[in-house]
Task: inverse folding
Protein backbone atom coordinates (compact mmCIF):
# COMPACT_ATOMS: atom_id res chain seq x y z
CA UNK A 1 0.00 0.00 0.00
CA UNK A 2 1.23 3.50 -0.84
CA UNK A 3 1.21 5.90 2.08
CA UNK A 4 2.09 9.07 0.14
CA UNK A 5 1.88 9.66 -3.60
CA UNK A 6 2.32 12.92 -5.49
CA UNK A 7 2.06 13.58 -9.21
CA UNK A 8 3.56 16.72 -10.84
CA UNK A 9 2.83 18.65 -7.65
CA UNK A 10 3.53 22.37 -7.87
CA UNK A 11 3.05 25.40 -5.65
CA UNK A 12 3.44 28.98 -6.87
CA UNK A 13 3.06 31.85 -4.44
CA UNK A 14 2.02 35.26 -5.67
CA UNK A 15 3.25 38.36 -3.86
CA UNK A 16 1.12 41.40 -3.07
CA UNK A 17 -0.90 42.70 -6.01
CA UNK A 18 0.34 39.78 -8.13
CA UNK A 19 3.50 41.58 -9.13
CA UNK A 20 5.82 38.62 -8.59
CA UNK A 21 5.42 34.87 -8.64
CA UNK A 22 7.59 32.57 -6.54
CA UNK A 23 7.76 28.86 -7.38
CA UNK A 24 8.18 27.01 -4.10
CA UNK A 25 7.67 23.50 -5.51
CA UNK A 26 8.02 22.30 -9.09
CA UNK A 27 6.67 19.11 -10.68
CA UNK A 28 7.30 16.83 -7.71
CA UNK A 29 6.33 13.21 -8.27
CA UNK A 30 7.14 10.66 -5.57
CA UNK A 31 5.80 7.54 -3.94
CA UNK A 32 6.35 6.47 -0.32
CA UNK A 33 5.28 2.96 0.66
CA UNK A 34 3.45 2.20 3.88
CA UNK A 35 5.75 1.18 6.74
CA UNK A 36 8.80 3.07 5.49
CA UNK A 37 10.66 6.05 6.94
CA UNK A 38 11.19 8.82 4.42
CA UNK A 39 13.32 11.92 5.01
CA UNK A 40 13.28 15.15 3.04
CA UNK A 41 16.72 16.70 2.53
CA UNK A 42 17.52 19.93 0.76
CA UNK A 43 18.77 23.49 1.17
CA UNK A 44 16.63 26.39 2.32
CA UNK A 45 14.03 27.19 -0.30
CA UNK A 46 13.98 23.68 -1.80
CA UNK A 47 10.28 23.25 -0.98
CA UNK A 48 10.42 20.83 1.96
CA UNK A 49 8.11 22.81 4.23
CA UNK A 50 5.82 23.65 1.32
CA UNK A 51 5.39 19.95 0.52
CA UNK A 52 4.48 19.12 4.13
CA UNK A 53 1.96 21.96 4.21
CA UNK A 54 0.43 20.76 0.95
CA UNK A 55 0.08 17.19 2.24
CA UNK A 56 -1.56 18.44 5.44
CA UNK A 57 -3.96 20.77 3.67
CA UNK A 58 -2.48 23.88 5.29
CA UNK A 59 -2.00 25.31 1.79
CA UNK A 60 -3.22 24.12 -1.59
CA UNK A 61 -1.40 23.06 -4.78
CA UNK A 62 -1.28 25.27 -7.85
CA UNK A 63 -0.95 22.26 -10.13
CA UNK A 64 -0.75 18.51 -9.75
CA UNK A 65 -2.23 16.14 -7.20
CA UNK A 66 -1.37 14.16 -4.09
CA UNK A 67 -2.82 11.31 -2.07
CA UNK A 68 -2.26 9.98 1.45
CA UNK A 69 -3.42 6.41 2.11
CA UNK A 70 -5.06 6.55 -1.35
CA UNK A 71 -7.19 9.53 -0.30
CA UNK A 72 -6.86 12.86 -2.07
CA UNK A 73 -5.28 15.53 0.12
CA UNK A 74 -8.48 17.58 -0.16
CA UNK A 75 -10.14 14.94 2.04
CA UNK A 76 -10.36 14.73 5.82
CA UNK A 77 -10.41 11.15 7.12
CA UNK A 78 -6.70 10.45 6.54
CA UNK A 79 -5.75 13.39 8.77
CA UNK A 80 -6.92 11.45 11.82
CA UNK A 81 -3.97 9.11 11.25
CA UNK A 82 -1.27 11.79 10.97
CA UNK A 83 0.97 13.15 13.70
CA UNK A 84 2.53 16.50 12.87
CA UNK A 85 5.00 18.50 14.96
CA UNK A 86 6.18 21.79 13.41
CA UNK A 87 9.35 23.49 14.56
CA UNK A 88 7.47 26.21 16.44
CA UNK A 89 4.07 24.88 17.40
CA UNK A 90 1.72 27.26 19.20
CA UNK A 91 -1.67 26.92 20.85
CA UNK A 92 -4.22 29.67 21.56
CA UNK A 93 -2.80 31.31 24.71
CA UNK A 94 -6.21 31.67 26.35
CA UNK A 95 -6.80 27.90 26.37
CA UNK A 96 -5.81 25.74 29.33
CA UNK A 97 -3.67 22.64 28.84
CA UNK A 98 -6.61 20.27 29.17
CA UNK A 99 -8.69 22.41 26.79
CA UNK A 100 -5.99 22.23 24.13
CA UNK A 101 -6.04 18.43 24.23
CA UNK A 102 -9.83 18.41 24.26
CA UNK A 103 -9.88 20.57 21.13
CA UNK A 104 -7.45 18.39 19.20
CA UNK A 105 -9.11 15.22 20.49
CA UNK A 106 -12.43 16.38 19.07
CA UNK A 107 -10.74 17.10 15.75
CA UNK A 108 -9.52 13.49 15.75
CA UNK A 109 -13.04 12.18 16.27
CA UNK A 110 -12.79 11.31 19.96
CA UNK A 111 -15.79 11.84 22.22
CA UNK A 112 -17.08 11.70 25.77
CA UNK A 113 -15.47 9.62 28.51
CA UNK A 114 -12.93 8.12 26.13
CA UNK A 115 -11.63 11.59 25.30
CA UNK A 116 -11.57 12.67 28.95
CA UNK A 117 -9.55 9.59 29.93
CA UNK A 118 -7.11 10.10 27.08
CA UNK A 119 -6.54 13.73 28.09
CA UNK A 120 -5.61 12.73 31.64
CA UNK A 121 -3.45 9.89 30.33
CA UNK A 122 -1.46 12.14 28.00
CA UNK A 123 -0.97 14.85 30.60
CA UNK A 124 0.36 12.27 33.04
CA UNK A 125 2.61 10.84 30.35
CA UNK A 126 4.39 14.15 29.81
CA UNK A 127 4.35 15.14 33.49
CA UNK A 128 1.92 18.04 33.02
CA UNK A 129 -1.03 16.84 35.10
CA UNK A 130 -0.70 19.73 37.54
CA UNK A 131 -0.80 22.15 34.61
CA UNK A 132 -4.10 20.85 33.20
CA UNK A 133 -6.08 23.90 34.33
CA UNK A 134 -3.33 26.43 33.60
CA UNK A 135 -3.48 28.54 30.45
CA UNK A 136 -0.78 27.57 27.98
CA UNK A 137 0.52 31.13 27.83
CA UNK A 138 2.12 30.33 31.19
CA UNK A 139 3.90 27.24 29.81
CA UNK A 140 7.64 27.41 29.24
CA UNK A 141 9.06 26.62 25.81
CA UNK A 142 10.47 23.37 27.20
CA UNK A 143 7.03 22.30 28.42
CA UNK A 144 5.53 23.01 24.99
CA UNK A 145 8.28 21.06 23.23
CA UNK A 146 7.97 18.15 25.65
CA UNK A 147 4.25 17.92 25.10
CA UNK A 148 4.48 18.09 21.32
CA UNK A 149 7.45 15.77 20.87
CA UNK A 150 6.31 12.98 23.18
CA UNK A 151 2.83 12.81 21.70
CA UNK A 152 4.08 12.88 18.10
CA UNK A 153 6.53 10.03 18.68
CA UNK A 154 3.99 7.91 20.52
CA UNK A 155 1.34 8.44 17.85
CA UNK A 156 3.85 7.50 15.15
CA UNK A 157 4.97 4.31 16.89
CA UNK A 158 1.39 3.28 17.66
CA UNK A 159 0.63 3.76 13.97
CA UNK A 160 3.59 1.55 13.04
CA UNK A 161 2.36 -1.20 15.34
CA UNK A 162 -1.21 -0.95 14.11
CA UNK A 163 0.11 -1.20 10.55
CA UNK A 164 1.81 -4.51 11.32
CA UNK A 165 5.23 -3.75 12.82
CA UNK A 166 6.39 -6.74 14.89
CA UNK A 167 8.73 -4.63 17.04
CA UNK A 168 9.82 -1.01 17.41
CA UNK A 169 13.22 0.43 18.32
CA UNK A 170 14.04 3.89 19.64
CA UNK A 171 17.51 5.16 18.71
CA UNK A 172 19.47 7.73 20.70
CA UNK A 173 22.76 7.93 18.86
CA UNK A 174 24.18 10.73 21.05
CA UNK A 175 23.21 9.57 24.53
CA UNK A 176 26.78 8.61 25.33
CA UNK A 177 28.08 12.17 25.07
CA UNK A 178 25.88 13.30 27.98
CA UNK A 179 26.80 13.19 31.63
CA UNK A 180 24.74 10.71 33.69
CA UNK A 181 22.65 13.57 35.10
CA UNK A 182 22.00 15.12 31.67
CA UNK A 183 21.25 11.71 30.17
CA UNK A 184 18.56 11.17 32.79
CA UNK A 185 17.11 14.62 32.16
CA UNK A 186 17.31 14.89 28.38
CA UNK A 187 17.07 11.29 27.17
CA UNK A 188 16.00 8.67 29.70
CA UNK A 189 12.84 10.40 30.88
CA UNK A 190 11.56 10.75 27.33
CA UNK A 191 12.28 7.14 26.42
CA UNK A 192 10.41 6.19 29.61
CA UNK A 193 7.45 8.29 28.44
CA UNK A 194 7.47 6.55 25.06
CA UNK A 195 7.51 3.08 26.65
CA UNK A 196 4.69 4.06 29.03
CA UNK A 197 2.73 5.67 26.21
CA UNK A 198 2.86 2.56 24.04
CA UNK A 199 1.59 0.46 26.93
CA UNK A 200 -1.18 2.94 27.64
CA UNK A 201 -2.21 2.78 23.97
CA UNK A 202 -2.65 -0.99 24.19
CA UNK A 203 0.63 -1.86 22.46
CA UNK A 204 2.36 -3.32 25.51
CA UNK A 205 2.75 -6.77 23.95
CA UNK A 206 4.79 -5.47 21.01
CA UNK A 207 8.53 -5.66 21.77
CA UNK A 208 10.17 -2.28 22.36
CA UNK A 209 13.96 -2.01 22.05
CA UNK A 210 15.88 1.02 23.31
CA UNK A 211 19.33 1.86 21.97
CA UNK A 212 21.48 4.67 23.32
CA UNK A 213 24.97 4.62 21.83
CA UNK A 214 27.74 4.93 24.40
CA UNK A 215 25.39 5.27 27.39
CA UNK A 216 26.77 2.18 29.12
CA UNK A 217 26.67 3.88 32.51
CA UNK A 218 22.88 4.03 32.15
CA UNK A 219 22.16 0.46 31.04
CA UNK A 220 20.70 -0.44 34.45
CA UNK A 221 18.29 2.49 34.34
CA UNK A 222 17.34 1.75 30.74
CA UNK A 223 16.58 -1.86 31.62
CA UNK A 224 14.15 -0.66 34.31
CA UNK A 225 11.96 1.37 31.91
CA UNK A 226 9.76 -1.62 31.10
CA UNK A 227 11.19 -2.07 27.60
CA UNK A 228 11.72 -5.58 26.25
CA UNK A 229 15.27 -5.22 24.96
CA UNK A 230 18.33 -2.99 24.84
CA UNK A 231 20.71 -2.38 21.99
CA UNK A 232 24.33 -2.52 23.18
CA UNK A 233 27.22 -0.92 21.31
CA UNK A 234 30.69 -2.46 20.95
CA UNK A 235 32.38 -0.37 23.66
CA UNK A 236 31.29 -2.70 26.47
CA UNK A 237 31.70 -6.45 26.90
CA UNK A 238 28.25 -7.97 26.47
CA UNK A 239 28.75 -10.07 29.62
CA UNK A 240 29.24 -6.85 31.60
CA UNK A 241 26.03 -5.53 30.03
CA UNK A 242 24.28 -8.68 31.26
CA UNK A 243 25.44 -7.99 34.79
CA UNK A 244 24.22 -4.40 34.66
CA UNK A 245 20.78 -5.30 33.33
CA UNK A 246 20.23 -8.30 35.59
CA UNK A 247 18.32 -10.41 33.08
CA UNK A 248 15.43 -7.91 32.95
CA UNK A 249 15.71 -7.44 29.19
CA UNK A 250 17.03 -9.10 26.06
CA UNK A 251 20.31 -7.69 24.73
CA UNK A 252 20.96 -6.87 21.08
CA UNK A 253 24.54 -6.55 19.82
CA UNK A 254 27.37 -6.00 19.98
CA UNK A 255 30.06 -6.73 17.37
CA UNK A 256 32.26 -3.76 16.41
CA UNK A 257 31.02 -2.74 12.92
CA UNK A 258 34.63 -2.18 11.79
CA UNK A 259 35.08 -5.96 12.01
CA UNK A 260 33.40 -6.16 8.60
CA UNK A 261 36.55 -4.67 7.06
CA UNK A 262 38.58 -7.64 8.34
CA UNK A 263 39.41 -10.98 6.67
CA UNK A 264 36.75 -13.69 6.80
CA UNK A 265 38.47 -15.80 9.44
CA UNK A 266 38.81 -12.80 11.74
CA UNK A 267 35.08 -12.04 11.37
CA UNK A 268 34.31 -15.67 12.23
CA UNK A 269 36.36 -15.56 15.42
CA UNK A 270 35.04 -12.14 16.46
CA UNK A 271 31.46 -13.40 16.14
CA UNK A 272 32.36 -16.47 18.22
CA UNK A 273 33.86 -14.25 20.92
CA UNK A 274 30.66 -12.20 21.32
CA UNK A 275 28.54 -15.34 21.49
CA UNK A 276 30.89 -16.97 24.00
CA UNK A 277 30.96 -13.82 26.13
CA UNK A 278 27.17 -13.83 26.34
CA UNK A 279 27.12 -17.47 27.40
CA UNK A 280 24.31 -20.00 27.40
CA UNK A 281 21.61 -17.72 28.74
CA UNK A 282 18.60 -16.86 26.59
CA UNK A 283 17.77 -13.38 25.41
CA UNK A 284 20.61 -12.57 23.02
CA UNK A 285 19.88 -11.00 19.62
CA UNK A 286 23.15 -11.00 17.70
CA UNK A 287 23.79 -7.74 15.89
CA UNK A 288 26.43 -5.16 15.15
CA UNK A 289 27.12 -2.62 17.88
CA UNK A 290 26.06 0.20 15.55
CA UNK A 291 25.40 0.82 11.86
CA UNK A 292 27.36 -0.16 8.78
CA UNK A 293 29.39 2.19 6.61
CA UNK A 294 28.41 2.70 2.94
CA UNK A 295 31.62 1.10 1.66
CA UNK A 296 31.20 -2.14 3.62
CA UNK A 297 30.83 -5.24 1.48
CA UNK A 298 27.54 -7.19 1.54
CA UNK A 299 29.64 -10.33 1.13
CA UNK A 300 31.19 -9.66 4.55
CA UNK A 301 27.69 -9.53 6.04
CA UNK A 302 27.07 -12.98 4.59
CA UNK A 303 30.24 -14.20 6.33
CA UNK A 304 28.95 -12.75 9.60
CA UNK A 305 25.54 -14.41 9.23
CA UNK A 306 27.13 -17.78 8.51
CA UNK A 307 29.37 -17.41 11.57
CA UNK A 308 26.39 -16.57 13.81
CA UNK A 309 24.56 -19.67 12.63
CA UNK A 310 27.62 -21.83 13.15
CA UNK A 311 28.63 -20.64 16.59
CA UNK A 312 25.16 -20.16 18.08
CA UNK A 313 23.97 -23.67 17.27
CA UNK A 314 23.29 -25.55 20.52
Result:
Amino acid sequence: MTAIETSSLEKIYTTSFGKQKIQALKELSLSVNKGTIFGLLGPNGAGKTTLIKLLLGITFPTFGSAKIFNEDISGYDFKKRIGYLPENHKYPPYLKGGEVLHFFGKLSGMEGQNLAMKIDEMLELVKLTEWKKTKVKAYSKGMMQRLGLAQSIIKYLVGQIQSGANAVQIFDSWGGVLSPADFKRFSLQYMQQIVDGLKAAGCGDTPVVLFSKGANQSLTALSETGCHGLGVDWTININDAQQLTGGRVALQGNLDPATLYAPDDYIDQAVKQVIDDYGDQTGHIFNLGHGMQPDMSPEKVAVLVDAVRKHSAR
Observations:
- Residues 6 and 23 are 17 Å apart (CA to CA).
- The first helix runs from residue 48 to 56.
